[in-house]
Design goal:
6 helices; 134 residues; three-stranded antiparallel β-sheet; mainly alpha
């Protein structure tokens, strides 16, 4: 076993060489987050996901779905029809993650006004500092 991984017994995401660190890097992507949440409602096609996630490019959608599939969070099913039909759904592991991410999304939606107000106050404070001559 690799000595870096061995030194990470119990997994410690603060350690750069720990496998859990790379999991957090993957989860830090807003598109990973939003795709997992979107797929929580069930199996969907690429086009449905593209319409749901405003601002995602086709390239980023494909890349993110590949990462999620690689990491065992999403299952991809290709149907042998013309034109080809591909559907994506969360695996059990993905469903488990989706529950946690949905709680974070709810928190973000509930506290967005608070964050917006704090940002406005910070911005006003910065403007006041600029306006005061030294």
């Amino acid at each position: 076993m690799d000595s870096d991984i061995e030194s990470c017994r119990g997994y410690d995401a603060f350690r750069r060489t720990c496998p859990s660190h790379t999991v957090l890097e993957m989860l830090a992507s807003k598109w990973v987050y939003l795709l997992v949440c979107a797929l929580r409602k069930g199996r969907q096609r690429n086009g449905e996901l593209a319409r749901k996630l405003e601002g995602i490019t086709p390239k980023m959608l494909t890349q993110t779905l590949r990462v999620l599939e690689r990491d065992g969070l999403v299952r991809r099913e290709v149907y042998p029809v013309i034109p080809p039909r591909v559907e994506y759904e969360l695996t059990e592991l993905g469903q488990n993650l989706a529950g946690l991410l949905s709680q974070i999304r709810s928190w973000a939606e509930e506290h967005a006004p608070d964050i917006k107000d704090a940002r406005a106050r910070a911005s006003a404070g910065e403007q006041a500092e600029i306006a005061i001559p030294a």
